[in-house]
Amino acid sequence: MADPDAEFGLRDLLGLRDRSAWLFLLILEATIALYMMRNFGTGAFGCSAAALVLLALAGLVVLVLPIDPLSWPATVFVVASAPVATALTTIGLKQGTPQQVWTMFASSYVLAVLVLRGRVAAAWVGVAGVAVVVGVTGVLKGAATGMLTGSVLPIVTVTGLSLFAAIMRPTQRSLRLLREEATMRAAAEATMAAENGERDRQLARLDKVARPILERIADGVELATAEREQCRLLEAELRDGLRAPQLVCDELNSAARGARSRGVEVVLLDDGGFAGVPRWVRQQVIDAATHELDAANAGSVTIRVLPMGRRIVATVLANAPVADRRTEIDAAGVVTVST
């Protein structure tokens, strides 16, 4: 299981993202090139060039890949690049040459960045690999003292970054918790704003359609038969707004009111399927439902939006004394009618 603190890595803490990351990459690659160019005067040209390309590519991989900690395939490549590049630049050294291997300097920075990517143990494996290569080469070339002295640099560099990572770990944890709290607070505020917006919309709609008749009832006026029928239709319309809010629109409300006034039983249900489809598919459903409601003079019409993720987005079932008709609208907006 990944370390939760790795979700807020040292790269985030140091601001090594976006433009800052590209600037850091440019500096790292320039540093690698400056050190590796020194090898062309002491070793074989082809091997020195191959080592330069290998370390430059490792520097690119260790910084560009976005996920922390660095993926294991990339980590293995970066770890292996340090000792392999060191071996390539020591092949051409003459017997007894006390020349420092400049590759050790360049590889130390690549391994240090690996620590920043959350792979401390792997960076130390790379340091050990460089030390082994330098030690064996130093003995074979008769320049053990000078080369082994130079191999201390990767150890010092990686040690410093490892200590820094250990010291900054509590800070990482605190910042991660703060970020989680900020995310939760933002989500709660967004939910509250959405709830307030929906409540205001429902209140405005209720005020628009129900205020006149409610004021007459509050005044104690005896309602006529037509007004009682209006109350029945209004109650059904308000119930539709609660059970199927995504189906509520002037077009469908008008069609449902007309069908109910003709004695048709109308049922609207919304299970949330509109959340995963384009707006024009929703309009297809409303058009199909409006058509069935306008055509119905008896029986019942049930309009249902299915749960999200189904192939069929919504169904319109019209039950009439003569025949039943079922209309299905899929996620692509295709309308299928069956009797």
From TrEMBL:
Keywords: Membrane, Transmembrane, Transmembrane helix. It comes from the Bacteria. The keyword Membrane applies. The chain crosses the membrane at residues 21-37, 43-65, 72-93, 121-140, 146-167. This is Uncharacterized protein.
